[in-house]
Write a structure and sequence with these properties.
This protein is α+β, with helices and mostly antiparallel strands. Helices cover about 30% and strands about 30% of the residues. The protein is built from 5 helices and 4 strands, in the order E-H-E-H-H-E-H-H-E. The protein has helices at about 30-35, 55-60, 70-80, 100-110, 125-135, and strands spanning about 20-25, 35-50, 85-95, 140-150. Strands 1-2-4-3 form a 4-stranded mixed β-sheet. The chain is elongated, with a radius of gyration of 19 Å. The mean pLDDT is about 95.
């Protein structure tokens, strides 16, 4: 079942309904997740870090929209909701583009990254990045994600 809600909405499920709740790149309410998990149930979430590609954003004078979305914050919230953290991993890597055209394609595909992005409105930023490429530098930026596995205490 695929349900899409905000992180403030109560989930439309009974208490203790699910043995497994999966979340990928979406906001969630830790208290609601804990409520709908069955005893011994597992919650897995894969999140894009709130500072994803912040160096790319800076190249366009943009700010991260969700800077507080961090592994530490989410782990603390899940613990406060009564879940046990079984695993928490952060990953950092490179987000690289072969040319400015590929970067334009990417920014069009993820319009929330640089709000209002268009070639016309951001041409100066794009020209600076092209100059960077022409100078022998690469178009590589910092990518960050994290994964959490949490469990609701089972019957004793």
């Amino acid at each position: 079942m695929d349900v899409r809600l905000t992180d403030c909405d109560p989930l439309p499920f009974s208490d203790g309904k699910f043995d497994l709740v999966l979340n990928r790149h979406s906001a969630f309410n830790p208290n609601e997740v804990a409520r709908i998990l069955a005893p011994g149930g597992t919650f897995l979430t894969h999140q894009v870090h709130g500072l994803w590609a912040c160096d790319l954003l800076a190249a366009f004078d943009a700010k991260p929209q969700w800077p507080g979305s961090t592994l530490e914050k989410n782990v603390a919230q899940l613990r406060t909701a009564g879940l046990t953290i079984l695993g928490a991993e952060e990953w950092s890597g490179r987000l690289a583009f072969a040319d400015v055209g590929a970067l334009v394609y990417y920014l069009k595909a993820v319009p929330w990254l640089v709000p209002g992005f268009s070639v016309e409105t951001h041409v100066e930023h794009l020209l600076r990045l092209q100059h960077r490429l022409d100078s022998g530098d690469e178009l590589a930026f910092t990518a960050r994600k994290f994964l959490i596995e949490a469990q609701k205490k089972g019957p004793t």
